[in-house]
Amino acid sequence: MLRRHLLAGGAALSAARSALAQNTGAAAEAYPSRAIQMVVAFPPGGQADVTARPVAAALESAFRQPVPVVNRAGAGGIVGTASVARAPADGHTALLALSSLSVLPEAERIQGRTPAYTVDQFAPIARITADPTLLVVPAGAPWQSLEEFVADARGRPGAITYGSAGNYSTLHVAMAMLTGAAGLDLLHVPFQGGGPALTALLSGTLDALASGPGPVLPHLREGRLRALACWGAQRIPGFETVPTFIERGFPEVEFYIWTGLFVPAATPEPVQARLRGALRAACEGPQLRRALEAAGSPVAYQEGEAFARFFAADNARLIRAVQRIGKVE
Fold it and tell me: How far is CA 136 from CA 42, 215, 303, in A?
């Protein structure tokens, strides 16, 4: 009798697994069945938004479904990011994230708060871009070089302002690396995103900003901004006259603003695979590549184990940087 019960139970379990596999496969084949919301956790105009627009257009073409970009700003990126962590895990809500995805939960812990989300609530689809950051100032600023900027900042502690997308945002972490390495006391002015910070810089109410190349490229071309240095290991193509911090004697000052697409962790793997396949094809195609290159952020596509390794290493490095910043009052 026990043997009959075990056999019956095994058959039922096998049938349930088969039905689940069929249902999952059917769901993947039907995906997407409606619009895919691509959430950007920052206002329009910043690096995530600049990347999201052409990526969304490419996915719309691939899936023949709307892919609206939804700017859900607040708390330096926490509000929009946490909303995706809580979204239904069906592939119809995705997050176009920056490297601050790793930073914000650690910053919340340092501030004595429970994180609104954790990194393990997301499944990585792929990395899209990975830009070294640029230090930019208004064209009318007195500094013609990094050396002049550093010398002036050392002579006037707390007088030079810089903006960011919020406390512990990627732009804040990058500048904190510089101020720590160079022994500078700059006045940090947090905004609700990189777009508003850039607007403040262009209006002359800020003195400096760390930014990915994309948002500042048009203003550099128009002569409204000047780039003093970059956080990359090598000079950025198209910005060959801009030195790296490493060249100028700051070997620890290296930072990248990357963008990647994520979905809630419980999203079925076949759905993730369909989304990843469409994104891979778009990143390999000329239209998206041209759009991102024109925006100053060339494709640096990674997926699977390569992206997982990159994300884990970057996550650990950024957490160490946030811990060095410490609690922000």
Answer: 20, 11, 31
Q: Looking at the DSSP assignment, which residues form a beta bridge with residue 163?
A: 189, 209
Helix axes 269-284, 47-63, angle to 10 degrees: 100
pLDDT digit string, tens, across residues 207-246: 999 998 888 989 999 999 999 999 988 898 888 999 999 9
Closest CA to 217 of 299, 141, 300, 292: 292
Q: Cα separation of 102 and 318, whole Å? A: 7
Q: Which domains does the chain have, with CATH numbers?
A: 35-130+256-325 (3.40.190.150), 134-230 (3.40.190.10)
DSSP at 121 = G
**Which tokens belong to 204?**
């002359």
Mention every residue, 6+ apart, whose C-beta is less than 8 A from residue 328.
107, 111, 167, 168
